[in-house]
Inverse folding.
């Protein structure tokens, strides 16, 4: 370390960065603590932020700009701390904590992952912006360093780590290191996650309500087990009943019907899919006919499952269907294994060689729930989080085809069913028109969830709306669900002033 770097650090910290390697932590070891000067953020796929790497002594490789784009903004100088946590004999949890060496805002932010994790994904997506805001920020690989599902077969403790323990242990250790480094605990603690990170966020509120003052949970994969099992069921259903396959022409027929019926403003996305109803029964082929102009009854069932969700034989919902406006793709039934989605069944049955041909949704879903259902963050009782003053900000994009937006509405409604219909003083949901999975998409895809949550927690200012923006100058208010932004009827569709938050009548619950 240079002398100037040391003076910079000493001015901000009570403990020198390198000294953190001697810190004694229960069931954990600080493996590295080094000062990283101001510079570009880590590269996606490189070092500890990549798909494979997790730990390393050298600072991560600089992230390269997209072709033709500007290079990513630098991140401030920080003390980069790497920790290995072993709460059980079969645990191997990696975490990383970045501590600003100056201008710390006095707060901590934990961040989430996507998919099955397997790396500290927050290093490239959530931790850099948090550090720029002055946060001490941490992420974890959730307890494994492999892809696929083999890491969990025969390792129930690793699955528990993934389900909830790794995030909690990361939070506890991060706060302890923060206190040691700055000689004071964070004044406020926040968690921000999307997709699997949204599941991690809800799990914290449900199981460990004292960990965070405010939580941002986006594009929820909180029904993780049911989501993957539903994917298995859809795939196998088509392999067993290929007559339900859709050609590209028939898929286009469905999508054109939705667009012509619902996209009345011709925006290229649906502002609020709940405000439109489509009668797909008019596409049913007459008896004996099957051409590109209509759908057979078997194909109608495929469409019904896509939008209505996967259900068991009793009609109980296993996982929600897609929102109108999210296009159905051509699908073809084959006698091939359902791919990676089957990993969750193999894990639940603890059998790496499980024969997918024998899968039966009605018989196997209860067994899967019993074995690994604790991974799903679906407990609607958030009373403890509410009581300690926690604030929960839920977000989802209506154009999310990765995880259906209906599942976030499903969870939001379940909380109201459990705790009462008036919970807006601590929990609010914002649906973003035209936003894809955790961002992107043709509509409103950028908004300040962190600043919104900070005002709510620290100043008591509940968000009556969030201003959202998108491509080509699009601006529109995001409204707390079940409200939605309604066009006033005049003016530029891209102008925020021409939209107003409106209460729909009647309210339609997410399936």
């Amino acid at each position: 370390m240079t002398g100037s770097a040391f003076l910079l650090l000493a001015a901000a910290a009570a403990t020198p960065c390198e000294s953190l390697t001697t810190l004694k932590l229960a069931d954990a070891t600080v493996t590295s603590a080094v000062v990283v000067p101001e510079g570009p953020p880590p590269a996606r796929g490189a070092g500890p932020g990549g798909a494979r790497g997790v730990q390393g002594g050298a600072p991560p490789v600089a992230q390269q700009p997209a072709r033709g784009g500007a290079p990513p903004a630098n991140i401030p100088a920080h003390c980069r701390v790497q920790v290995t946590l072993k709460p059980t004999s079969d645990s191997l949890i990696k975490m990383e904590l970045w501590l600003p060496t100056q201008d710390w805002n006095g707060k901590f932010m934990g961040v989430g992952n996507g998919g099955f994790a397997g790396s500290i994904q927050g290093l490239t997506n959530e931790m850099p912006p948090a550090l720029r805001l002055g946060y001490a920020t941490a992420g974890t690989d959730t307890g494994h360093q492999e892809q696929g599902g083999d890491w969990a077969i025969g390792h129930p403790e690793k699955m528990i780590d993934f389900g909830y323990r790794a995030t909690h242990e990361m939070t506890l250790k991060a706060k302890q290191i923060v206190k040691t480094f700055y000689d004071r605990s964070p004044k406020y603690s926040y968690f921000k996650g999307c997709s699997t990170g949204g599941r991690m966020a809800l799990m914290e509120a449900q199981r460990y309500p004292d960990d965070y003052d405010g939580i941002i949970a986006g594009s929820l994969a909180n029904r993780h087990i049911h989501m993957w099992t539903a994917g298995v069921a859809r795939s196998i259903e088509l392999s067993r009943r290929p007559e339900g396959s859709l050609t590209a022409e028939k898929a286009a027929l469905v999508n054109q019907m939705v667009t012509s019926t619902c996209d009345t403003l011709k925006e290229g996305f649906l502002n609020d899919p709940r405000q439109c109803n489509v009668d797909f029964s008019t596409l049913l082929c007459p008896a004996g006919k099957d051409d590109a102009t209509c759908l057979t009854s078997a194909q109608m069932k495929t469409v019904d499952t896509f939008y209505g969700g996967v259900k068991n034989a009793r009609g109980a919902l296993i996982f929600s269907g897609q929102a109108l406006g999210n296009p159905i793709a051509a699908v073809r039934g084959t006698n091939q294994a359902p791919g990676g989605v089957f990993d969750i069944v193999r894990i639940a049955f603890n059998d790496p060689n499980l024969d997918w041909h024998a899968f039966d949704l009605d018989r196997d879903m209860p067994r899967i729930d019993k074995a690994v259902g604790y991974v799903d963050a679906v407990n609607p009782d958030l009373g403890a989080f509410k009581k300690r003053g926690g604030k929960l900000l839920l977000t989802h994009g209506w154009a999310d085809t990765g995880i259906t937006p209906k599942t976030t509405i499903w969870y939001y409604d379940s909380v109201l069913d459990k705790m009462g219909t008036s919970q807006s003083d601590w929990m609010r949901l914002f649906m973003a028109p035209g936003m894809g999975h955790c961002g992107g998409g043709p509509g409103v895809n950028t908004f300040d969830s962190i600043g919104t949550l900070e005002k709510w927690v620290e100043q008591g200012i509940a968000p009556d709306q969030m201003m959202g923006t998108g491509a080509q100058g699009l601006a529109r208010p995001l409204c707390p669900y079940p409200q939605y932004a309604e066009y006033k009827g005049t003016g530029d569709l891209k102008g925020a002033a021409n939209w107003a938050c409106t209460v729909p009548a009647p309210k339609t619950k997410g399936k």
Observations:
- The first strand starts at residue 28 and ends at 36.
- The longest helix spans residues 156-182.
- The CA atoms of residues 9 and 101 lie 5 Å apart.
